[in-house]
Design goal:
globular
Length: about 240
């Protein structure tokens, strides 16, 4: 098992929890405990789905090879994990779907930023060659490269803060969650050319995330009677 993945996952979880705590202190409409439970449960379900898909794609039966399933030795299908987590979160938040997802979206994006920054534990931050002052070289190499995962972490961190501000100032239900999905896909699209193998990732899925997120945002802005009241006006300050 690659234990460094656990440290990266812990960084993402701590970033998620920290963001929820910070948001809860500034917006009294948020139920931080409920959002945390939704996020953790959805994350676990997404991990299970992603691992199962990865095993099936590798020709391994997850039912008869439970040891391989638990050890996570062959990785996780990230697309399946993301889709599984999103569907699980939607189902768990079904009683007040848009409001719950809007509350969770900024923290979830910051959690993804934490996961990306977890590349420092995995020694997997670097992308294509670069001579920029902040580029650095892999241990044992003289070739400096873009710290691509750090770029993604910084971009997502800023986006998470902006999403929270949008939620406070433009309380149309569904806008923030739509923008959150779009911005994660957009950051991946923008950073993909700097990764070691040009456009080797599932760029179609990233583009789909941007398109679906923007479509959901547009739909939310056109809905009538879909706004909520911000109870704490000081949160806007």
């Amino acid at each position: 098992m690659e234990f460094t993945l656990l440290w990266a996952a812990l960084a993402g979880a701590l970033a998620l929890y920290g963001a929820l705590w910070w948001m809860g202190r500034r917006d009294t409409t948020l139920c931080v405990r409920d959002l945390w439970e939704i996020a953790v449960t959805a994350g676990i379900i997404g991990l299970v789905v992603g691992r199962m898909v990865s095993m099936l794609r590798g020709g391994v039966n997850p039912v008869t090879n439970l040891g391989d399933f638990i050890l996570v030795r062959a990785g996780v299908d990230t697309v399946a994990a993301a889709v599984g987590a999103l569907l699980a979160a939607a189902w768990l938040a079904r009683s007040d779907l848009l409001e719950q997802l809007d509350g969770l979206a900024p923290a979830a994006v910051f959690g993804v930023a934490g996961w990306q920054a977890g590349c420092l534990f995995r020694d997997a931050c670097l992308g294509s060659r670069s001579s920029l002052p902040w580029a650095w070289a892999q241990t044992g190499s003289d070739i400096t490269r873009h710290p691509i995962e750090i770029y993604a972490a910084l971009g997502l961190g800023v986006a998470a803060w902006l999403l929270f501000r949008v939620r406070l100032r433009y309380p149309a239900a569904g806008v923030v969650s739509g923008l959150g999905l779009a911005v994660v896909g957009l950051v991946r699209l923008l950073t993909e050319p700097l990764r070691p193998s040009l456009f080797a990732g599932p760029t179609w899925w990233y583009g789909a995330a941007v398109g679906v997120g923007l479509a959901a945002t547009l739909w939310a802005t056109r809905r009538r009677g879909s706004t909520r009241t911000v109870e704490d006006p000081t949160a806007l300050q």
